[in-house]
Amino acid sequence: MFELLKTDAHTKARLGRLTTAHGVIDTPTFMPVGTQGTVKALDPRELREMGTQIILGNTYHLNLRPGLDIIRAAGGLHQFINWPAPILTDSGGFQVFSLAKIRKIKPHGVEFRSHLDGSLLFLGPKEAMEIQRALGSDIAMVFDDCPPHTSTPREVRAAVERTIHWARECREQPRAPGQLVFGIVQGGSDAALREECAKAIVPMQFDGYAIGGVSVGEPESEMMKAVELAEPFLPADQPRYAMGLGTPAQLVEMVARGVDMFDCVLPTRVARNGTAFTRKGTVIIKAGFNKADFRPMEENCDCFACRHFTRAYLRHLLNVNEILGIRMLSVHNSHLFLKVMADVRTALAAGNFPEFRREFVANYVPSRKVLSTRKKETER
Amino acid sequence: MFELLKTDAHTKARLGRLTTAHGVIDTPTFMPVGTQGTVKALDPRELREMGTQIILGNTYHLNLRPGLDIIRAAGGLHQFINWPAPILTDSGGFQVFSLAKIRKIKPHGVEFRSHLDGSLLFLGPKEAMEIQRALGSDIAMVFDDCPPHTSTPREVRAAVERTIHWARECREQPRAPGQLVFGIVQGGSDAALREECAKAIVPMQFDGYAIGGVSVGEPESEMMKAVELAEPFLPADQPRYAMGLGTPAQLVEMVARGVDMFDCVLPTRVARNGTAFTRKGTVIIKAGFNKADFRPMEENCDCFACRHFTRAYLRHLLNVNEILGIRMLSVHNSHLFLKVMADVRTALAAGNFPEFRREFVANYVPSRKVLSTRKKETER
Predict the structure, then answer these.
(1) Which of A86, A285, B117, B192 has its CA 20 to 30 A from that of A231?
(2) How does pLDDT run across A356-371, given as a tens digit for each residue?
(3) Closest alpha carbon to A30 in A100, A86, A114
(4) Nearest-CA residue of chain B relative to A288?
(5) Mapping DSSP to helix (H, G, I), strand (E, B) and coil, where does residue B294 land?
(6) What is this model's ipTM?
(7) How far apart are the C-alpha atoms of A138 and A21, rounded to whole Å?
(8) CB-CB under 8 Å, B37 with A313
(9) Do A313 and B40 touch (CB under 8 A)?
(10) What does the pLDDT look like over A250-265, one tens digit per residue?
(11) For residue B134, what are the CA distances in angstroms to B62, B74, B80, B201?
């Protein structure tokens, strides 16, 4: 299922290949996020053209709209959205804890009110696995308890215990044919809890392991630490997935720490705000300084947007609220994340990942948001 | 410049070919509208794939944003928007009379306040031609006075006189290299005024003639009448363009009345409202009755949207406000308008246009809006 092709001699970076029911994924890989059954603003052809091998679907959202009956009638999520390649579905746990305003944690899951119409719903290990079985995703995630960054040590411990308990329940549920299931390690930035959680989850023998509870508002250093604390306890011959992050430079750093899989809404979300990712950091394409700049968003980029359009034109489109502007920034940003991972794989194959990493991170100007978390760290 | 290839034996329908600086246009033709430098939600590749030979650009809007300096610096509109095929630009007259709230008609144009920021602007024959020269469109339109449907006979007469006067001024302005200029015939539904206007405009020797003042809120019968009144006075060996209309069935009827060129915002506007055009009329794709309908929007349609997606999926996308829904309905609707014109040309070439027309119009269920205008007519 997972072939570990090569491990970097100087870092923990790994080159691999993951085989699923709907196709092969070269790792390290970036997975564009298709929350509601579409990667926002993009169509499947565009996704394939930029090298997408796997996308994400969202259990919580798809269960609310269009609902399981519709997706079942369509013959599963791949058929419904016409994406014949691999799909990973999250368990809905993250949304239950972040979106639903009113919730009550019970032994076998969470009772909560829909963020859409307030209707009373229940999601737990059994339900999450049943929904993911109906969706027919290639990789299903266990239902976990993902506490916010601001949680007390006591709350983090409770979340770890629930995550372990629920993982065991998930493990016992039936799966869709060929469906892989990944366990999730929680534990915040507490070394003992990360170890404890990993040591409880790994013996359950999942097909891969995710590091959860990252990218939940914590400083960058804590995000890195969480991964460093969990990674040593994950089996080398199985894929590792760091959930919901990050910037291109953070992804490269995570690869160096032994992570194989990533997903993030940043490429499309930042696009909708009129900002492009580049290998040198972000550029506000919507800004007035681009109005007569006839270069592409990024020099030497071979994405559809950079091959066809200038910053000046894209700036105009964003300025007058034309959908094509958002579309083309979504194309470019998603392409960049995928291309960086492709470059990482090339570097790993060639044996020069440490040089690639050093150069990439040195060239990448972090956003003010990331810098502010670094500053806070230093001040402590 | 314009080759009249064939005239139908039983109707006034014509098969033709119009050669412009950026390419050839087969007529009858439909021109997707790119108001602000983009056909809403579509990219140039999608436009070419659906058979688009010419698109529209908008003098009023492009002059406000991004402004002429930017488009000049880009090397013209084709370069700025990366559309290497023909472009027709309107003169801005229609927008000055429909969008600008405060305006003062003067001998050489109209003083008005921008609908965006209220700044004082002036647009007349000289300015409109100068802007269109800078845009570098293949076909420029003269600056006319397009009165609303509710105008008094006296106002329509004044508009005709101004239109004639301004057309003469436009005729004297310099053009971009190879740029064609079309005259516009106004006159509402007044036979004498339509004749008078046409007889004044045609001797000015434009490269083609548009019938203006249609699709300005009048009943369908008056729209047809306006075209019927103007057409006999237009030279047979030059292209005729009915501005800003209509439904697919209306276009076929207009072809039968001797019109060669059409533009309309309906395909993309209606798409944004969640409705699809089909050969049998419109279908509200966003409606709940489509939620488990796994057929394409239109059977046997070979557009990108119908080849890839079901009504159920598109309904879901529209329901959760995903851009891909609007995109795919814009693709389908624009494709349909272009395909109907392609079918019209095939029928004309085969000599069976009257049968095509009869069948098409019989199958096409008019919208309630169109039906209501027909009803009013009957009640008079």
Answers:
(1) A86
(2) 999 999 999 998 888 8
(3) A86
(4) B66
(5) coil
(6) 0.97
(7) 6
(8) yes
(9) no
(10) 999 999 999 999 999 9
(11) 11, 11, 12, 24
